[in-house]
Structures are given as structure tokens and as C-alpha cells.
Amino acid sequence: MPDQDYMNNVLVFDHPLIQHKIGKLRQKDTGPKEFRELVSEISLLEAYEATRDLPLEPVEIETPMATTTVYELAGKKLALVPILRAGLGMVDAWLSLIPNAKVGHLGVYRDHETLQAVEYFCKMPEDIEQRDVFLLDPMLATGVSALSGLEVLRKRGVKSIRFVCLIAARQGIKAVHEVYPEVPIYCAALDEVLNDQAYIVPGLGDAGDRLFGTK
Ligand code: URA
């Protein structure tokens, strides 16, 4: 893939509310309670933006006054697939907007020595291949977890997948788009580098630890 082409199909949400909240989220003094709230609030705003192009169909209804045409979501049903554990922090906000979405769970951890993804849990809705899927993980760092999630979903026959994160590193976007250029990547911030332990810099540290207070 020619350099920079990997940035096609990437959308960085520049909404002022999202940017303000990302700033607070990054701060090291933000404790788990506020961190969880911010992840949720940003996820809600991202869900609003990332669902902008869902298809609608006209439906005739009756108001108390007259018959009129309204618009309902059409197309395939939706599913959310958070990558455990940090992806869990995004799910409730998405469900509050799309309450009928089914939720699959994918457990992937990053082996700190090999930096490879190890899949330890996978439970998907039975009809996942018939759904449009939003794959959720706050951090897109090396791309290893995202690639593992995308491979699982493609193997199950899922055709439409969008990847939604909070902070994406260029390296991760490149890694994902080299294999799956057709998968849109939505993020709230784009960071330039990873450190030697594959953490995003400046990033926000370990999203799972900060969500659940495990460090
Ligand atoms: N996962 C995290 O939680 N943080 C990073 O910086 C990279 C991956």
C-alpha cells in the first residue's frame, strides 16, 4: 500500500465536545470514576457520528393529527463487539443509542513479551454474519488486537465491519488498513508514536487499568 493511502477510510471526530473530553481523559490525575464517565460520554458522541450513514426507509404513520411519512432505520441489524477488557467501557453508551443491538464479546490480551494478541474468549451472537458490526476498543496501538477481532468476524462471515476507538496510533491504522483497507476506522484522536512497550504516546496509559482501577 503506498504511503499515506492507509489514512483513507479514517475519520477523526473533531467535534469540540469530543476533543474537550479527550483532553480530560488523557490527564494522568483523572481517576477511574471520571475516566469511565468520560469514556462513556465520548463513546456516545462517537456512536452518534459513526452511525450517520445508516440507511433509513420511509414509513407511513398516523399522528393524532394526520397521516405522515417518517423514517425508520432500515438495512441490516446491528451488533457491537467490544474487545475485552477496555472495550467494555464503550458498550453501555452505544447500547443507550442502539438498544436492540446484540453484543458479542471478544477477549484478546497482548502478551507483553511477544507483543502478539492472545485470544482467550469469544462469544458472538448466533446470527452475527447477518449483522453490521461495530468493533469497539478504546486504543488502536499496534493493531494486533483489532486485526485479531477483524479476523474472527470475517471468518464468521461478517461483511460490514467498522472499527471504533478513542485514540488511534498511525502504526495501528496502517497495520489494520494493510490487511482490511475496506474497514472504516473512527477515532477521536490520532497519535504519532508508540513506546517500546507498544503504548501510545502521548496516549492515556493503559485504558483497561484506568477504567477498572487495576493499577
Ligand atoms: N492499550 C492501552 O490501553 N493503551 C495503549 O497505549 C496501548 C494499548
Please write out the topology:
Layout: E1 10-12, H1 16-26, H2 32-50, E2 56-62, E3 67-73, E4 77-84, H3 88-97, E5 102-103, E6 105-110, E7 117-123, E8 131-136, E9 139-140, H4 144-155, E10 161-164, E11 167-169, H5 170-179, E12 185-187, E13 189-191, E14 193-194, E15 200-201, H6 207-212
Parallel strand pairs: 1-12, 4-5, 4-6, 4-8, 8-10, 9-11, 10-12, 11-13
Antiparallel strand pairs: 2-3, 6-7, 14-15
Helix pairs in contact: 1-2, 2-3
The structure holds uracil.
Helices, by number, come to 6
Rounded radius of gyration (Å) = 18 Å
- The CA-CA distance between the termini, in Å, is 39 Å
Shape: globular
Order of secondary-structure elements: EHHEEEHEEEEEHEEHEEEEH
The share of residues in helices is 25-40%
Mean pLDDT: 95
Ions, cofactors and other bound molecules: uracil
From the helix content, strand content and strand pairing, which structural class follows? alpha/beta
Strand content: 25-35%
Strand segment tally:
15
Low-confidence stretches: none
Largest sheet: 8 strands, mixed
Describe the model.
The chain is α/β, with parallel strands linked by helices. Helices cover 32% and strands 30% of the residues. Strands 1, 4, 5, 6, 7, 8, 10 and 12 form an 8-stranded mixed beta sheet that branches. The longest helix has 19 residues, at 32-50.
